Amino acid sequence: MSEKADIALIGLAVMGQNIILNMNDHGYVVCAYNRTTEKVDQFLANEAKGTKVIGAHSIKEMCDKLKKPRRVMLLVKAGKPVDDFVDQILPFLEKGDIIIDGGNSEYQDTDRRCKSLKEKGILFVGSGVSGGEEGARYGPSLMPGGNPEAWPHIKDIFQSIAAKVGSEPCCDWVGESGSGHFVKMVHNGIEYGDMQLICEAYHLMKDVVGLDNQQMSDVLAQWNKGELDSFLIEITSNILKYKDADGSYLVEKIRDSAGQKGTGKWTAISALDYGIPVTLIGESVFARCLSALKDERVFASKELPGPGKIQFDGDVKEFVQHISKALYASKIVSYAQGFMLLREAAKVYGWNLNYGGIALMWRGGCIIRSVFLGNIKAAFDKNSQLSNLLLDDFFKSAMKECQTSWRKVVAKAVEVGIPTPCFSTALAFYDGFRSERLPANLIQAQRDYFGAHTYELLENPGKYIHTNWTGCGGNVSSTTYEV
């Protein structure tokens, strides 16, 4: 059989279909396959009608239709389905062929697959794909990592279909093993944080200041012309003013119980595993968990006292401006924490990550795309060894400009009983990070008192000692460990 297709794609849900059509638009011949083969015929007869897309009704037929080295991309559910398809594809591949997992897989699974398939001579790539349905169709953000030998064979396809900022594609090689999916995981965690921050701003404008939906929509539209310019601000402005058939605002009818697919949780767990204080993403995950306790919250609202209704008597326009600055400062902290986690994972796994390049990959096409990411790229371009975004001159200046407003917003929220977990934890992190001394000396003394866990002295770091605090204990210490 003659070789026809440049690449095959398995998984014909909406993301898979749209990426196939995107590849077709850029001149690539794609072979489409789905476990339920009727879907292949439906796709060819409808969405892909009139294109160069071809179909296959078996894994063998799909592989037979591919140019060498064969390139097979999976867009299927993470976990066992990926392993099952890899096992089905392997008998029809040769040394040097490439499998690409474009789903939301856990980075540890990608690391495992890279190693096991390398032993078989197959090049495995785990690629983050962000941008939703529209991004997949017209230009997603792509974050490929894995076996570096695969990159020259997929680079042109990936960078052709990716979103562009100017002439730069929002796609480049991330690094080895599971790094592509790790970067995507952190992206999704930051997405959780951005969404929660916007929700807290909405809550404050609605229940403290008393703005109606059209007014809030107008405020966000104005924010979207400045430093907060982003996809999520844009769509939130549109959501807030959208009216149902009866003329009422639709968003106010939606049950306040948020769902989640787990990638934010993965980010928070990774942060705990590596000992990095990614507090804002963690709080955004817990905020969704708390929202899911809807029935319990309804009951508690009738039982638990709060500060009561406090009439806002300040300058509305001024306080809305304070909220925008609190949002911006908190957003900076969230991204600073995310890049701290990327840096630590790179150290643990030996990845050579280009942090400015990652910011560029997120600059367009993806859900967290924003003008703000250009400032992050500039920071890392200026200093590739920058240890923390907060130490860059641009962001230091931004925090100086925003912090008075930020503190006023958090204080007002506490006063009136409006929960702002992400605004508050971002400020707490900022104050902790800029503190030369924290009260952890007392924690170390407590640990040594009850568990003989030892401590270091300021004048002699690196030497662990134990004190018999009561005179009744012994002088034997426990094994030193980090917690």
Automatic annotation (TrEMBL):
Look up the EC number in the record and give it. 1.1.1.44
- Which biological pathway? Carbohydrate degradation; pentose phosphate pathway; D-ribulose 5-phosphate from D-glucose 6-phosphate (oxidative stage): step 3/3
The yes or no answer to whether the keyword RNA-binding is present is: no
| Positions of substrate binding | 104, 130-132, 187-188, 192, 261, 288, 447, 453
A Gene Ontology BP annotation from the UniProt entry: pentose-phosphate shunt
UniProt KW NADP keyword: yes
Pfam families, sorted: 6PGD, NAD_binding_2
Keywords, ordered alphabetically = Gluconate utilization, NADP, Oxidoreductase, Pentose shunt
- Annotated residues that bind NADP(+) are located at 11-16, 34-36, 76-78, 104
Summarize subunit and interaction data from the UniProt record for this chain.
Homodimer.
Q: What is this protein called?
A: 6-phosphogluconate dehydrogenase, decarboxylating
Q: Which organism is it from?
A: Folsomia candida (Springtail)
